[in-house]
Design goal:
23S rRNA pseudouridine(1911/1915/1917) synthase activity; 16% helix; RNA-binding; 297 residues; Pseudouridine synthase; PsdUridine_synth_cat_dom_sf; alpha+beta
Protein backbone atom coordinates (compact mmCIF):
# COMPACT_ATOMS: atom_id res chain seq x y z
CA UNK A 1 0.00 0.00 0.00
CA UNK A 2 1.34 3.44 -0.91
CA UNK A 3 0.55 6.87 0.46
CA UNK A 4 1.89 10.03 -1.14
CA UNK A 5 1.49 13.73 -0.46
CA UNK A 6 3.00 17.11 -1.25
CA UNK A 7 4.22 18.93 1.82
CA UNK A 8 2.01 21.98 2.29
CA UNK A 9 3.15 25.36 1.04
CA UNK A 10 1.62 26.86 4.20
CA UNK A 11 3.91 24.98 6.60
CA UNK A 12 7.53 25.67 7.58
CA UNK A 13 10.27 23.10 6.87
CA UNK A 14 10.17 20.19 9.32
CA UNK A 15 12.01 16.93 9.96
CA UNK A 16 10.90 14.05 7.77
CA UNK A 17 9.84 11.84 10.69
CA UNK A 18 7.64 14.60 12.09
CA UNK A 19 6.17 15.40 8.68
CA UNK A 20 5.16 11.75 8.32
CA UNK A 21 3.66 11.63 11.81
CA UNK A 22 1.57 14.71 11.04
CA UNK A 23 0.37 13.39 7.69
CA UNK A 24 -0.22 9.71 8.54
CA UNK A 25 -1.30 10.03 12.15
CA UNK A 26 1.37 7.53 13.26
CA UNK A 27 3.72 7.87 16.20
CA UNK A 28 7.16 9.35 15.45
CA UNK A 29 8.87 6.06 16.31
CA UNK A 30 6.77 4.18 13.78
CA UNK A 31 7.58 6.78 11.13
CA UNK A 32 11.28 6.49 11.86
CA UNK A 33 11.05 2.72 11.42
CA UNK A 34 9.44 3.19 8.00
CA UNK A 35 12.19 5.63 6.99
CA UNK A 36 15.02 3.39 8.21
CA UNK A 37 13.50 0.40 6.40
CA UNK A 38 13.65 2.31 3.10
CA UNK A 39 9.87 2.72 2.69
CA UNK A 40 9.97 6.55 2.38
CA UNK A 41 11.16 8.66 -0.57
CA UNK A 42 11.33 12.45 -0.80
CA UNK A 43 11.31 13.64 -4.41
CA UNK A 44 12.12 10.03 -5.41
CA UNK A 45 15.18 9.84 -3.15
CA UNK A 46 15.67 8.19 0.26
CA UNK A 47 16.37 10.60 3.11
CA UNK A 48 17.40 10.36 6.74
CA UNK A 49 14.77 10.74 9.46
CA UNK A 50 16.18 14.17 10.41
CA UNK A 51 16.25 15.56 6.87
CA UNK A 52 14.15 18.68 6.43
CA UNK A 53 11.08 18.42 4.24
CA UNK A 54 10.32 21.72 2.54
CA UNK A 55 7.09 23.16 1.11
CA UNK A 56 6.16 21.61 -2.22
CA UNK A 57 8.29 18.48 -1.88
CA UNK A 58 6.70 15.13 -2.74
CA UNK A 59 6.78 12.36 -0.14
CA UNK A 60 6.03 8.76 -1.10
CA UNK A 61 5.46 6.10 1.57
CA UNK A 62 5.34 2.41 0.61
CA UNK A 63 3.93 0.72 3.67
CA UNK A 64 4.09 -3.03 4.29
CA UNK A 65 0.80 -4.91 4.05
CA UNK A 66 0.56 -5.15 7.84
CA UNK A 67 1.34 -1.47 8.44
CA UNK A 68 -2.30 -0.38 8.57
CA UNK A 69 -5.59 -2.11 9.37
CA UNK A 70 -8.09 -3.00 6.65
CA UNK A 71 -11.75 -3.97 6.38
CA UNK A 72 -10.82 -7.42 7.65
CA UNK A 73 -10.23 -5.79 11.05
CA UNK A 74 -13.64 -4.06 11.14
CA UNK A 75 -16.52 -5.77 12.96
CA UNK A 76 -20.28 -5.32 13.03
CA UNK A 77 -20.98 -5.15 16.78
CA UNK A 78 -24.74 -4.54 16.91
CA UNK A 79 -27.53 -3.79 14.45
CA UNK A 80 -31.27 -3.24 14.22
CA UNK A 81 -33.44 -1.94 11.40
CA UNK A 82 -32.32 1.67 11.99
CA UNK A 83 -28.81 1.67 13.44
CA UNK A 84 -25.58 -0.31 13.35
CA UNK A 85 -22.52 -0.06 15.59
CA UNK A 86 -19.15 -0.89 14.00
CA UNK A 87 -15.78 -1.50 15.58
CA UNK A 88 -13.04 0.65 14.01
CA UNK A 89 -9.46 -0.36 14.82
CA UNK A 90 -6.91 2.29 15.64
CA UNK A 91 -4.96 3.39 12.57
CA UNK A 92 -7.94 3.26 10.20
CA UNK A 93 -9.57 6.49 9.02
CA UNK A 94 -13.32 6.81 9.52
CA UNK A 95 -14.10 8.41 6.16
CA UNK A 96 -12.33 8.74 2.84
CA UNK A 97 -9.96 11.58 2.13
CA UNK A 98 -6.68 10.69 3.84
CA UNK A 99 -5.44 7.28 2.77
CA UNK A 100 -6.71 4.39 0.67
CA UNK A 101 -8.56 2.51 3.42
CA UNK A 102 -11.32 3.85 5.62
CA UNK A 103 -14.26 2.55 7.62
CA UNK A 104 -16.74 4.13 5.22
CA UNK A 105 -15.43 1.98 2.34
CA UNK A 106 -16.04 -1.15 4.44
CA UNK A 107 -19.80 -0.63 4.77
CA UNK A 108 -20.90 -2.55 1.61
CA UNK A 109 -18.94 -5.62 2.68
CA UNK A 110 -20.80 -5.60 6.00
CA UNK A 111 -24.21 -5.50 4.34
CA UNK A 112 -24.58 -1.76 5.02
CA UNK A 113 -24.39 -0.28 1.54
CA UNK A 114 -26.09 3.11 1.48
CA UNK A 115 -25.89 3.54 5.28
CA UNK A 116 -24.60 6.83 6.70
CA UNK A 117 -21.92 7.14 9.38
CA UNK A 118 -23.12 9.37 12.22
CA UNK A 119 -19.92 9.98 14.14
CA UNK A 120 -16.20 9.91 13.51
CA UNK A 121 -13.25 8.73 15.52
CA UNK A 122 -9.74 10.11 15.19
CA UNK A 123 -7.46 8.05 12.96
CA UNK A 124 -5.59 6.60 15.95
CA UNK A 125 -8.64 6.07 18.17
CA UNK A 126 -10.31 2.66 18.22
CA UNK A 127 -13.86 1.69 19.10
CA UNK A 128 -17.46 2.18 18.11
CA UNK A 129 -18.73 4.18 15.17
CA UNK A 130 -22.49 4.48 14.62
CA UNK A 131 -24.30 4.23 11.27
CA UNK A 132 -27.90 4.95 10.30
CA UNK A 133 -29.92 3.11 7.67
CA UNK A 134 -31.96 6.11 6.51
CA UNK A 135 -32.33 9.86 6.86
CA UNK A 136 -35.14 9.56 9.41
CA UNK A 137 -32.91 7.55 11.74
CA UNK A 138 -30.02 9.97 11.23
CA UNK A 139 -32.30 12.89 12.13
CA UNK A 140 -33.53 11.06 15.23
CA UNK A 141 -29.93 10.53 16.36
CA UNK A 142 -29.18 14.24 15.99
CA UNK A 143 -32.29 15.14 17.99
CA UNK A 144 -31.36 12.74 20.80
CA UNK A 145 -27.79 13.99 20.84
CA UNK A 146 -28.88 17.63 21.09
CA UNK A 147 -31.15 16.61 23.99
CA UNK A 148 -28.32 14.86 25.84
CA UNK A 149 -29.85 11.41 25.33
CA UNK A 150 -26.77 9.89 23.67
CA UNK A 151 -24.06 8.77 26.06
CA UNK A 152 -20.62 7.79 24.82
CA UNK A 153 -18.21 5.94 27.08
CA UNK A 154 -14.47 5.75 26.41
CA UNK A 155 -11.55 3.98 28.04
CA UNK A 156 -8.30 5.95 28.15
CA UNK A 157 -4.87 5.36 29.62
CA UNK A 158 -3.58 8.69 30.93
CA UNK A 159 -0.22 9.77 32.28
CA UNK A 160 0.03 10.16 36.04
CA UNK A 161 -2.40 9.53 38.87
CA UNK A 162 -5.92 10.78 38.16
CA UNK A 163 -8.76 10.17 40.60
CA UNK A 164 -11.37 12.09 38.68
CA UNK A 165 -11.66 14.91 36.20
CA UNK A 166 -14.44 17.21 35.04
CA UNK A 167 -13.36 19.38 32.12
CA UNK A 168 -15.79 22.11 31.11
CA UNK A 169 -13.51 24.34 29.05
CA UNK A 170 -14.59 25.15 25.53
CA UNK A 171 -12.43 23.70 22.77
CA UNK A 172 -11.67 25.98 19.85
CA UNK A 173 -11.49 23.89 16.69
CA UNK A 174 -10.29 26.19 13.93
CA UNK A 175 -9.15 23.33 11.66
CA UNK A 176 -5.60 23.34 12.97
CA UNK A 177 -3.86 20.06 13.71
CA UNK A 178 -3.92 20.86 17.43
CA UNK A 179 -7.19 22.16 18.89
CA UNK A 180 -7.02 24.82 21.58
CA UNK A 181 -8.60 24.61 25.03
CA UNK A 182 -9.92 28.00 26.14
CA UNK A 183 -10.77 29.39 29.58
CA UNK A 184 -14.42 29.84 28.58
CA UNK A 185 -16.93 27.30 29.92
CA UNK A 186 -18.69 25.28 27.22
CA UNK A 187 -22.28 24.05 27.17
CA UNK A 188 -22.85 20.95 29.37
CA UNK A 189 -23.24 18.70 26.32
CA UNK A 190 -19.56 19.35 25.55
CA UNK A 191 -18.12 18.56 28.97
CA UNK A 192 -15.69 15.69 29.56
CA UNK A 193 -16.10 13.63 32.73
CA UNK A 194 -13.51 11.00 33.69
CA UNK A 195 -13.24 8.60 36.63
CA UNK A 196 -10.35 6.32 37.53
CA UNK A 197 -10.82 2.61 36.90
CA UNK A 198 -7.42 1.55 38.25
CA UNK A 199 -3.78 2.48 38.48
CA UNK A 200 -1.54 0.95 35.82
CA UNK A 201 1.99 1.44 37.06
CA UNK A 202 2.48 5.21 37.26
CA UNK A 203 -0.48 5.87 34.97
CA UNK A 204 -4.27 5.66 35.26
CA UNK A 205 -6.89 3.77 33.30
CA UNK A 206 -9.89 6.10 33.01
CA UNK A 207 -13.53 5.64 32.15
CA UNK A 208 -14.61 8.78 30.30
CA UNK A 209 -18.14 9.90 29.47
CA UNK A 210 -19.10 12.53 26.92
CA UNK A 211 -22.44 13.43 25.36
CA UNK A 212 -21.64 15.45 22.23
CA UNK A 213 -17.96 15.57 21.50
CA UNK A 214 -15.81 18.07 19.67
CA UNK A 215 -12.78 17.08 17.61
CA UNK A 216 -9.98 15.77 19.86
CA UNK A 217 -12.14 16.61 22.91
CA UNK A 218 -10.97 13.87 25.29
CA UNK A 219 -7.34 14.05 24.14
CA UNK A 220 -7.18 17.83 24.44
CA UNK A 221 -9.03 18.10 27.76
CA UNK A 222 -6.86 15.48 29.46
CA UNK A 223 -3.64 16.94 28.09
CA UNK A 224 -4.75 20.42 29.21
CA UNK A 225 -5.22 18.99 32.71
CA UNK A 226 -1.68 17.60 32.66
CA UNK A 227 -2.59 13.99 31.89
CA UNK A 228 -1.94 13.39 28.19
CA UNK A 229 -2.95 9.98 26.86
CA UNK A 230 -0.36 7.27 26.41
CA UNK A 231 0.58 6.97 22.73
CA UNK A 232 -0.78 10.40 21.72
CA UNK A 233 1.65 11.93 19.18
CA UNK A 234 -0.19 15.28 19.08
CA UNK A 235 -0.93 16.16 22.72
CA UNK A 236 1.54 13.81 24.41
CA UNK A 237 4.81 11.98 23.86
CA UNK A 238 3.60 9.49 21.25
CA UNK A 239 4.82 6.32 22.93
CA UNK A 240 4.98 3.18 20.75
CA UNK A 241 2.05 0.78 20.79
CA UNK A 242 -0.67 3.08 19.53
CA UNK A 243 -3.02 5.58 21.15
CA UNK A 244 -4.73 4.30 24.29
CA UNK A 245 -8.17 5.77 23.62
CA UNK A 246 -11.11 3.49 22.83
CA UNK A 247 -14.81 4.22 22.37
CA UNK A 248 -16.17 1.37 24.48
CA UNK A 249 -19.91 1.89 24.86
CA UNK A 250 -22.76 3.79 23.20
CA UNK A 251 -26.19 4.28 24.78
CA UNK A 252 -29.20 6.03 23.26
CA UNK A 253 -32.98 5.49 23.07
CA UNK A 254 -33.75 2.02 21.73
CA UNK A 255 -30.15 1.10 20.91
CA UNK A 256 -26.89 0.38 22.68
CA UNK A 257 -23.63 -1.37 21.90
CA UNK A 258 -20.34 -2.13 23.64
CA UNK A 259 -16.95 -3.43 22.52
CA UNK A 260 -14.05 -3.62 24.96
CA UNK A 261 -10.44 -3.15 23.82
CA UNK A 262 -7.98 -6.02 24.19
CA UNK A 263 -5.76 -4.05 26.58
CA UNK A 264 -4.32 -6.26 29.36
CA UNK A 265 -5.25 -3.68 32.03
CA UNK A 266 -9.00 -3.79 31.30
CA UNK A 267 -11.22 -5.86 33.57
CA UNK A 268 -14.76 -6.18 32.15
CA UNK A 269 -16.57 -6.50 35.49
CA UNK A 270 -14.71 -3.57 36.99
CA UNK A 271 -15.47 -1.30 34.04
CA UNK A 272 -19.16 -2.26 34.04
CA UNK A 273 -19.36 -1.66 37.79
CA UNK A 274 -17.82 1.79 37.49
CA UNK A 275 -20.14 2.74 34.63
CA UNK A 276 -23.20 1.87 36.71
CA UNK A 277 -21.85 3.90 39.64
CA UNK A 278 -20.11 6.56 37.55
CA UNK A 279 -21.29 9.66 39.37
CA UNK A 280 -20.11 8.54 42.81
CA UNK A 281 -16.75 9.58 44.26
CA UNK A 282 -15.47 6.20 45.39
CA UNK A 283 -11.75 5.51 45.31
CA UNK A 284 -10.49 3.17 42.56
CA UNK A 285 -8.91 -0.19 43.46
CA UNK A 286 -5.14 -0.33 43.32
CA UNK A 287 -3.67 -2.52 40.58
CA UNK A 288 -0.18 -3.93 40.29
CA UNK A 289 1.42 -4.77 36.96
CA UNK A 290 2.75 -8.28 36.58
CA UNK A 291 5.78 -9.11 34.40
CA UNK A 292 3.42 -10.62 31.83
CA UNK A 293 1.83 -7.18 31.39
CA UNK A 294 -1.50 -8.26 32.88
CA UNK A 295 -3.05 -5.93 35.39
CA UNK A 296 -4.66 -7.67 38.37
CA UNK A 297 -6.02 -6.41 41.71
Amino acid sequence: MTNSFFYSEDLPPVRLDKALARQLGFGVRRCRALIEAGHVLVDDRPCAKGALVRPGQHVLVSMPEDAAPTCHDVRLVARNESFAALFKPGGLHTVAGRGASCLESCLPGLGLEGWELLNRLDHLTSGLVLAAGDQQSAAAYKTWQDAGQVRKWYLALARGVVQGLDSRERILDDKRRVVRVTTEEDEPLRWTRARAVCQVGDDTLLLVRILKGRRHQIRAHLAHAGHALIGDPVYGVGEPGGLYLHHWRLEMPGFEAAFLPDWPCVDHELVESLASDFDSDRDPPKFRILPSGEAKP
